[in-house]
Amino acid sequence: MTPPTVRRRRLGLELRRLRDQSGLTLEDVEVRTGLGASKLSRLESAARGAKPADVELLLNLFGADEKHSAFLMSLAKDGRKRGWWQTYDLAPVYADLISLEDDAAAVSNYETLLVPGLLQTAAYARAAISAVGMTRTPEEVSRLVEVRMARQSVLTRPNPLKLRAIIHEAALDVRVPGPGLMRDQLQRLLDVAEYPHVTIQVLPSASALHPGATGGFAILGFGLSGMDVVLLEHLNSSLYIEEPADVGDYTEAFERLTASALSFDQSLDLIAEKKKEAGP
Fold this sequence. Notes:
About 50% of the residues lie in helices and about 10% in strands. By secondary structure, it is of the alpha/beta class. The protein folds into two domains: about 5-80, 434 Repressor (Amino-terminal Domain) (Orthogonal Bundle), CATH 1.10.260; about 90-275, Endonuclease, Chain A (2-Layer Sandwich), CATH 3.30.870. Strands 3-2-1-4-5-6 form a six-stranded mixed β-sheet, with helices on both faces. The longest helix is centred in the first third of the chain and has 17 residues, at about 5-20. The protein is elongated.
């Protein structure tokens, strides 16, 4: 059985929260809507997908506001949504990420040894994917580079994604093979930093211990309380953190990292200096 997507789990959790908030039991909802209690339970646990008509019925019953309802309806309709990424044979967790990025209003990303994917050049992405993937074929690497470049369209769309990126200085010093490759990557950071919706900070190697010492993470924000999601990526797996309290911990950690990092101007000055050191 295919595991439920992050979007389906988020919808189920939120329907459960709204029902609890309204003080209704599953049986109460069944009486008022005609939707079976067992079906509602499966919707809330993400054991089954939700029909938009059923979700609309529930949201009306729970009295969800217009903005909240619109977002949850978009989650319910996702099964019928055809995104560009669905033409690629991607792992479900990666397809989830791209789908979430497509709908997100903001992303806060902290990276320790890599430049964030949304800020990578194609050459850097190829080197990174090849190194991390280890056993991937050249064809697989090329396909994933193409996907990574396509993902970056969220930064140039009419209503662009707001990106806050904190990059550990160590990521700027990693030796990446290829003439001029790292120099071009550092220039890419300087270029994208000019976008009004992108902020880039560098966390210096000389900084004191901080919450990011355990590794990188990305927070995907949707502009609605309790709906943000955290992504943790590992060598051969990824994990989504979805409980609001846990997401709150990562949000606080990111703010602490922001305070520990160099200012925006200092960060760009350091990146420019690293670019000069990278040579021609």
